[in-house]
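Annex B. Sample input.
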Amino acid sequence: MIGLGRMGGNMTQRLLRGGHRVVAYDPDEQARLAAASVGAVGAVDIAGLASLLTPPRAVWVMVPAGDITDATIGALAETLSAGDTIIDGGNSNYKDTIRRAAAAHEQGITMLDVGTSGGIWGLAEGYSLMIGGDADAYSRLEPIFQTLAPGEDFGYGHVGPAGAGHFVKMVHNGIEYGMMQAFAEGFELMDAKRDMELDLAQIAHIWRYGSVVRSWLLDLTATALDEDGNLEGIQAYVDDSGEGRWTLEESIDLAIPIPVISASLQARFRSRQESPFGAKLLAAMRNQFGGHSVKRSE
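Annex B, continued. Sample output.
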């Protein structure tokens, strides 16, 4: 039996299909009803969640990084008992995870940090799970990870002490930024070669088979281009979850150069600016020293 604190529906369904009994809590009533509709036992609050679980209890927390994670884990720590385990499956900063695990340890509660990748496809394909924290707790709860992973003997693993799971997931996301940016730049270059009238969706599908750049990201790129080849319905605004920034900060602390990941993060920042001041200043400088023309705002 596993308690799911503020847990996504896809993960709940995959656990239920694997034969686990799931107790689910979310502060939003509609989310609780959705979990109950697929077979989970609903809890109206954290105390209720804990009371419906059999010791030693395991509660999986899936909330955004930051204060809400601190609040949720803090509330759980006040409710659970020695021998229980809190699993943080969100994208927490690994430094915060180390701090939280140490605080929980003082109360006899173990913590596992599970870097989780798979997104909305996790229900069908399984989740990639990078797990840090107490080794004994990991061994006890391994059947849960086997159920969530793509297979019983692959796609998951215990990677190190507290914080290691979230650290590895942070680097994973940094690499993801770089890979996505490379695809975006390559397809933009092909799109600009208008005289060749290239079919970008066709090219994406060609690359999916036999090419050294074939990947799940390329599969998803092909799907996106199939749906809207000109991407007319999408704005050129790219957000970031924070893990790319943390990866860059870590590279600075360790003096390890990561120019591709760094550039991909900067590209996301630029995508959010409708009229970048820096670009306007570049145009103004060229006009000042060389008399080059500038485009004026209407």
